[in-house]
Amino acid sequence: MNLFFILLLIAFVVAGYYVYQRLLKIEREIRADQHALVEEDDSVIEPDIELVSSGPAQKVEDNDALSEDMSLNDQIVLAVEGSPGLAQAEIYDKFPDNDRRELQKLLRQLDQSGQLRREKKGSSYRIYPL
Question: The pTM is what?
């Protein structure tokens, strides 16, 4: 009878190890997929997004006509120049009509092009003018 319990215990240990290895494999596949999506997202640059600002920055006013004439890039740069160190989430609040993912991509592109500087702070980013 003792031999039966020992064999049963060994079977449970082997089965547990097998399940553990399967879960690790699934986790690696998920992480690889996520990494591939992030790299794919970083490499795609939308042709309709202007990466270079035109001329020196101007003071942002609450004038709708001024906002319509400026590109989203310029509006973001001016908002950051108006209050340096904005959290990225605060920028989402300042531009509620724009998609959050579009703003994330645009902020990343502005950082890469040298118009803004993003610093990781906790789980978010702080945005600074250059």
Answer: 0.47
In angstroms, the Cα distances linking 38 to 12, 76, 98, 105 are 39, 23, 21, 11
Beta bridge partners, 78, equal none
The Cα 16–Cα 10 span in angstroms is 10
- What sign has the CA pseudo-torsion 91, 95, 100, 102? negative
Neighbours of 79 (CB within 10 A): 17
| C-alpha distances in Å from residue 101, one per residue of 81, 97, 104 | 22, 12, 5
What domain count does the chain have?
2
85: left (phi > 0), else alpha (psi -120 to 50), else beta?
left
The per-residue pLDDT for range 85-102, each reduced to its tens digit, is: 888 888 888 888 888 888
Segment 22-42, tens digit of pLDDT: 999 999 988 887 777 766 555
Other C-beta atoms closer than 10 Å to the C-beta of 73 total: 21
> Does residue 57 lie in a domain region?
no
Domain around 35: 1-44
